[in-house]
């Protein structure tokens, strides 16, 4: 007998956003811009899959709408604009394209011959099972009455589940309630399930995300915004909040106040970042995405999915590959999280400002710490001034592995050094006679973009060994005078 745990919990398991690959493009006018390109198959997956849900035994329900053809598996990359302009539709009678799409989505190769339900499913014009003799998952495609698209669904089972009973449950609890209203997507309502009803928490609503036609005319930023919304639109707990240059996705149970504060904070901070560390790039088409989880468990799961190591202690991080700032909201920790987000959001801003070319850790972490600690006036720099001054050239030259290496005390010293340099550049350097460091940031960023070499950018920032020595000398005077 097919058994589901009494009080089984079905939770959302959204797909990650596609991994981006950065290109620095120079226009005929000489203007430079960041162009993100993506694996076409990952773009297709992110736009085709409507949602995924998993229970506590690992059973995974995946649902997709089969309306665009699978790209060739040849590693092609494209911007979203290029991808959307060239996608091929799957029409209702395109059986080969439909089966190709189902095969690409299925956890195993689909069967050559399909089978139909023993009893027609009410509300369905057609249902075809494609799992063949495989007993590890129910895989089917179906066409709801009145729908303009076929849909795909797979239910990956737990060890010991009986496939025949699973098909019966699948038909009763998933297919039978399904209704199409022109552009249907799935929404899941996470709740405790009982009586073996695996899909009572699923309901279906019209979605504004995705699609063709007018979508193909949208600029890259708005296509990314639409894809970000689509990544959460079918999960009841998730919401999207949009501003000009960023989108916030969250599943906070009552996070309206915090999200409003965060929206205002991110808007103000992004203006301050751009004013403090200007970029020569045209960033008018970029979008900063932040994803805020309600629980630490979800946040830690996202760490693993994004292959982020050594950050289990954190409350937020910037994922350059996914182009997302990821965080979770601790209980009674809103103020502290805002400070952390100010830090991580600068990493996000600088990544876009430098076309994803890694900046030196003293610059990146120093300014991130500077914006996090906007009210701080002294980290005890003067007390350790000689030791810090002696180590400054090495800290400037170090890479990320070296910057993060060592004991906690050694890392804190490097962070304090980097912060004190950024603080001096902003508060002390403008008052130095003849302003010798006036173009330090400009020279650093422009050289980094030109050479893709943080050491050459360091050399351009300080000009010469004498320039570095003058910087250290004036930095010491500034901190000793505080």
Can you describe this structure?
This protein is an alpha+beta fold and 482 residues long. The chain folds into 2 domains: 8-229, no CATH class; 238-480, Neutral Protease, domain 2. It is 39% helix and 19% strand. The protein has 15 helices and 19 strands. It has helices at 40-48, 80-86, 95-105, 163-175, 220-230, 256-276, 296-305, 334-353, 361-372, 385-397, 400-404, 408-428, 440-451, 454-462, 465-480, and strands at residues 8-9, 11-12, 20-26, 32-39, 49-54, 60-66, 77-78, 124-129, 137-144, 150-156, 184-188, 192-193, 202-206, 239-242, 246-250, 281-282, 288-293, 316-319, 324-328. The strands form 5 sheets. Strands 2-5-6-10-9-8 form a 6-stranded antiparallel β-sheet. Strands 14-15-17-19-18 form a 5-stranded mixed β-sheet, with helices on both faces. Strands 3, 4, 7 and 16 form a 4-stranded mixed β-sheet that branches. Strand 5 (49-54) and strand 6 form a beta hairpin. Helix 8 packs antiparallel against helix 9 (361-372) and helix 10 (385-397) crosses helix 12. The longest helix is centred in the middle third of the chain and has 21 residues, at 256-276. The N and C termini lie far apart (76 Å).
């Amino acid at each position: 007998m097919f058994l589901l745990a009494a009080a089984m919990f079905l939770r959302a398991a959204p797909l990650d956003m596609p991994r981006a690959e950065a290109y620095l493009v120079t226009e005929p006018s000489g203007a430079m811009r960041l162009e993100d390109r993506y694996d076409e198959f990952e773009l297709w997956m992110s736009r085709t899959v409507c949602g995924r849900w998993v229970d506590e035994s690992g059973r995974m329900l995946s649902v997709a709408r089969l309306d665009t053809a699978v790209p060739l598996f040849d590693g092609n990359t494209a911007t979203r604009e290029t991808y959307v302009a060239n996608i091929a539709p799957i029409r209702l009678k395109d059986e080969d394209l439909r089966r190709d799409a189902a095969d690409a989505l299925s956890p195993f190769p689909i069967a050559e011959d399909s089978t139909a339900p023993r009893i027609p499913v009410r509300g369905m014009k057609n249902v075809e099972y494609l799992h063949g003799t495989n007993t590890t998952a129910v895989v089917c495609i179906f066409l709801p009455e009145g729908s303009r698209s076929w849909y795909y669904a797979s239910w990956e089972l737990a060890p010991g589940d009986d496939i025949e009973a699973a098909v019966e449950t699948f038909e009763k609890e998933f297919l039978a309630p399904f209704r199409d209203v022109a552009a249907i997507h799935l929404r899941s309502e996470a709740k405790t399930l009982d009586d073996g009803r695996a899909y009572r928490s699923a309901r279906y609503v019209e979605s504004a995300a995705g699609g063709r036609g007018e979508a193909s005319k949208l600029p890259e930023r708005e296509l990314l915004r639409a894809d970000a919304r689509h990544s959460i639109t079918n999960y009841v707990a998730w919401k999207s909040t949009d501003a000009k240059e960023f989108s916030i996705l969250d599943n906070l149970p009552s996070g309206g106040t915090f999200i409003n504060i965060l929206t205002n904070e991110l808007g103000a901070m992004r203006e301050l970042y751009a004013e403090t560390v200007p970029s020569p790039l045209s960033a008018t088409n970029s979008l900063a995405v932040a994803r805020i989880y309600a629980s630490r468990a979800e946040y830690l799961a996202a760490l693993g999915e994004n292959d982020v190591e050594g950050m289990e202690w954190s409350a937020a991080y910037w994922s350059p590959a996914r182009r997302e700032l990821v965080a979770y909201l601790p209980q009674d920790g809103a103020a502290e999280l805002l400070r952390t987000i100010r830090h991580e959001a600068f990493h996000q801003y600088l990544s876009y400002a430098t076309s994803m070319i890694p900046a030196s850790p003293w610059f990146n972490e120093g300014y991130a710490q500077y914006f996090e600690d906007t009210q701080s006036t002294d980290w005890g720099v003067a007390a350790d001034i000689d030791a810090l001054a002696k180590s400054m050239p090495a800290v400037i030259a170090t890479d990320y592995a070296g910057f993060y290496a060592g004991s906690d005390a050694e890392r804190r010293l490097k962070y304090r050094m980097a912060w004190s340099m950024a603080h001096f550049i902003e508060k002390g350097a403008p008052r130095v006679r003849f302003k010798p460091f006036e173009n330090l940031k400009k020279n650093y960023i422009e050289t980094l973009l030109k050479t893709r070499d943080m050491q050459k950018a360091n050399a351009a920032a300080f000009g010469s060994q004498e320039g570095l020595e003058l910087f250290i000398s004036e930095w010491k005077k500034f901190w000793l005078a505080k």
